Amino acid sequence: MRSPFSGKKPFLKVFFTIGCLIWLSAFHLISCKTMSSVKDYSYTTIPEDSLHTRIYRLENGLTVYMSPYHNEPRIYTSIAVRAGSKNDPAETTGLAHYLEHMLFKGTDSIGSLDYEREHIELQKIIALYEEYRSTEDPDTRAEIYRQIDSTSNIAAQYAVPNEYDKLLNSIGARGTNAYTWVEQTVYLNDIPANQLDKWLSIESERFRNPVMRLFHTELETVYEEKNMTMDSDSRKIWEALYSGLFTRHTYGTQTTIGEAEHLKNPSIQNVIDYYRKWYVPNNMAICLAGDFDPDETIRMIDEKFSVLKPRELPVFNPPIEEELSQPVASHVYGPESEELVIGFRFDGADSRDADYLTLLDKILHNQTAGLIDLNLNQEQQVLEAGSMAILMKDYSTHILSAKPREGQSLDDVRNLLLEQLELVKKGEFPDWLPDAVINDLKIEELKTWESNRGRTEGFVDAFIWDMDWARYENRIERMSAITKEEIMAFAREHYKENYVVVYKHHGKDKESPKIAKPPITPLSVNRDSTSLFAKELLARKNTAIEPEFLDFDKDISRESITSDISLYSVPNRENDLFSLYYVFDIGTNHSRRLDMALDYLTYLGTSTATPAAFNRALYRIGASFSVYTADDHLYIKLSGLQENFTASIQLLESLLSDARPNDEALEKLKQGLLKERSDDKLSKRKILFEAMSSYAKYGPQSPFTNVLTNTELQQISSDELLSEISNLIRYEHRVLYYGPQEPKSLAKELQGLRHMQKELIPVPAETPFEEIAPEENLVYVVDYDMTQAEILMLSQDNRYSPEQIPLITLFNEYYGGGMSSVVFQELREAKALAYSVFSIYRIPKNKDEHHYIFSYIGTQADKLPEALSGLGELMEKLPESPELFASAKAGIQEKIRTERVKREKILFTREEACKLGIDYDIRKNIYDHVGNITFDDISQFHKERFNSKKRIMMVLGRMENLDMETLGRYGTVKTLTLDEIFGY
Predict the structure, then answer these.
(1) Are 822 and 815 contacting, i.e. CB atoms less than 8 angstroms apart?
(2) How far apart are CA 841 and CA 852, in angstroms?
(3) Could you tell me if 29 and 272 are in contact, meaning their C-beta atoms sit under 8 angstroms apart?
(4) Are the C-beta atoms of residues 295 and 40 closer than 8 Å to each other?
(5) Which positions ≥6 away from 40 have C-beta within 8 Å?
(6) Are 903 and 975 in contact (CB under 8 A)?
(7) Span 388-413, mean pLDDT?
(8) Is-above-0.90 flag for pTM?
(9) CA-CA 20 to 30 A from 157: which of 98, 151, 446, 983?
C-alpha cells in the first residue's frame, strides 16, 4: 500500500467477487472480432452479461477486460499483476510490496533529466547495497551506508521526483494509488475519458523499464510503514491467525510488508530480478470500466503495450496444508481492547467450498438477520461480533470475531461464536433465510456495478484467481441452487475442531521492535524540472470536455408531503433499488440522550413483532435501515428493492411509532456502552483524531465530550429514551429519496404514514460550543504504547467564506493535499521522514465554523525533531515551483470538467451547500476562478494564514521515547490524561 491519502485498500481484502477469465468454456462464451482495416481483435463475452464485458488476449499475452459504462466521462483503471507476497523469496520477503513503491519512481524516460549519467550512479548504488547486505561489521556497514547516501544525492541531481504523480495529476486523474496483497499487485487510477491516450502512454512506459531511483529514501518510507504495522493490533491478529492456518503456504509463513531483518538488508538487484520475473504481459491484465469505445481502445492498448515482451513464468506450486485435528491457539498483546478471532481454512476461490462459504457467512452475519446478528449482537451477548469470508486463489478462510463485554472471558466469547456454527449444522435457522441471502447478494451486486471501480475490482479478482468469467457471472444463480440441507451438511463436514483461535489481550507486547533511523541527507527535489517525456506528453492536445454543474432546482424534484415536510428526490433509472432518508436538523448538541436513544431503538421490537421478528421481516424483503448522528444533524436511512418499498416503509414506521420498551435490553446496552467507552480510550485513532483534536479546538467542553456522564447513563430509563424517539419524529424534517418511483406518487404514499399526520414541533435549542483561538503556542501530549509518534497541528483562522474556496482549493492541491504536493515531496520523498504526511487549509462543514490549518505526520519517535523542523520550515516559507503549480491548476480544472455528481450524491451536495449558506454548486465557483489565480496569490495566502497563527500541536506516543525538550520549543507543553480529553 503506497499512500494514506487515496484509494487505500482495506486491511483485509473482502470482496464477494468470485469470477475469472476463460477463452473456451462450457458456458457458451461468444467469440467476437472488432472490425478494423488494419487488425482484427478477437474477444470473448457471455450472454446476458449486465456489464457488457469484453475480454481480450493480445499477442504478447496481455489480458484486457472492458466494461463500457457511459454515466460520466471518466474511466476507472486497474492494472493487475499476478504477483504478491506469496511469490516473495523466503530469504527476502517484502519484494512485491517494495516493487509496488518503486513503480511510482519513473523510468529512463519518466522522471529522468539525464539517464545516461544517472544510470552510472544507480549502478554504483546497486553494487553498494549488495556489499552492504553481505557485511556484518557495524562500522563497515555504516561506512557503506554513507557511500549509498552520498551517491544517492549525486544520482538525484538527474531525477525528477514524483513526476509520475505530477503527470497523472496534470491529466485530471483521481485516486492514483496501488496495493499489494498475497497474490496480486494492482495499480489504480480514475482518469478523464479524453485523457485515455495519454494515460496509456504513461502506463506502457511505466511498466516498460522501471528505474530503481531514490531507493534509500523510499526504503526508509517502507520502514515507516513497517513501524506502523508494528503498532497495529489488527496486524498482530492477522499474522497470528494466518501463521496458524498456513504453516506451509506463504500465506502464513511470510508477510506482505516483509520481515524487519529483510528490510534492513535490502537488495536492489533482487527487486529488479523480481520485476523481470513477474512483470511480463502474459502475467498482467488491464481492467477498464467507464466512458470509452472498446474497438478504439483495444487498438490503442495494443499499440502502446506491444512493447512489453512475454516470458515464461515460474510455476508456483501451492504447498498442501495438513488438516488441523485440534484447535491451535495464539495469544497476542497490544494497547487496544481485547478481541477474539477464530479462523477456518477452505479450498480456494474457484472451488465448491467458496460458494458454500459465501452463503454460510451470510447466514451467520448479514448485519440484520443472521445468527450472529440476532443471537449475539441483538441479544447483546457480546460487545461486537461478525463473520467474514476471505477468498484467495489457493485457499480461502472463514473468520469469526467478537469483542467481550465487561467481565466476560475470551473463552466465553469463543464458545458463543462456535455455538452459532452448531446451529447451522443442526439447521436451526429459518427455511427462508438462504433465499433471503441470495436476494441480499443480488442487491450487493447491483450496488457494486453502479461504480466503475466496483466493476474493475470484479475483473481484477477474476484475473488474479484465474477463474472463468462465465463462472463468475453465474455465481449467484449457482448458489441459489444450494439447499438448506446441503448447507447443513457442508457445515457438519468442515466446521469441527479444525480452527485457529487468536486471543488478543490488552497489554504490553513482550517484543516491541523497531527499525532504527539511518542517517539520510535530504535529496534535491528538482521541482522545477521536467523530463522530455513529460514535456512532449503534456504538449499533446486533446478534445476538451465541457463541465456540468448541478442546478438544484432542475436536478432535484421537490414535492410537498405535508405543509411542513418536503420531499426532495432524484430518479434512479439504472436499477430497482431505492434509498430514502429522514433528515433532521437536530443532533447530539441538541440532546445528549439522542445518540443513546437511537442505539436503544435497534434493540427493540413493536407491539406485534419481537426485535428478532422485526429484523427477520426486514431482511426477508431485502430492506435495511440505519441511523447516522452528528453534532447538529442526523438522518434515518431506509434502502432496498423498490418492489418492496411499501412493506419496507411500513416496517420502519411501525418501529419509529410503536417501539416497545425492553428494560433487559436497556441494562445490557448501558453496560455495553460503558465498555465501549473504556475501549475507546485504548484506540489510537479515537484518541488522536477525535478526543485530542476536539480538545484542541474547543477545550475541555466540546461536542465530543457533550455526552451523558457514566452516572447519568446508568440512571436513564426506557421511558426517557422512547420519549426522545417519539419527539424526534415530530421535529421538523425533510425526506430525501433516490429511486425509480415518481415523486408525486411517492409524496402521496408518504402522506399516509402515521408520523406524517402529526403536528410538527420546532427543533430545540442547540448547546453552543465556541471554537477557541489559543493565545500562545501549545503542545498537548498523551502517553500511548506505540513505536511511532503521531502529530496533529491545528491553527484556527477565519470563518467560512465561499469567495475564498477557489484559492483554498488550489493552495491545498499545491501545498499539502496529495502525493505531488510540496509537503509530501519534501518530508516523504526528499527526507524520508514519514510514510503518512499532509497539511491542508481545512474548509468547515458549517458556515458558522472556522477554517483550520490542519497538519499531520506520523514518524518514528527518534525522527521527531527532524519531522517537526521540516514541517515548520514549510509553514514559514512556501517553496515555489512553476511546474508543480501548473500541474495543480490543470489537475483541478480537468477533474471538474469530467466529474459528474450522480445519484444520492446530488441530494447530499445540496444538503452540504445549505449548511454552508449557499444555494449553488460550489464547483462552478472553483472552475470559473481557479484559472485566474497566480502563484503570488497562494504565496500571499500562505504568508498571511500560516506565519502569524498560534498553533496547537497534539502528540501521541510513548512518553519515554519522546524528546520533550524539542517539543518545548514549539510551545507550552501540557501532558493530558485520557479522562481529560474524553470527559468521562
Answers:
(1) yes
(2) 6
(3) no
(4) no
(5) 33, 34
(6) no
(7) 98
(8) yes
(9) 98
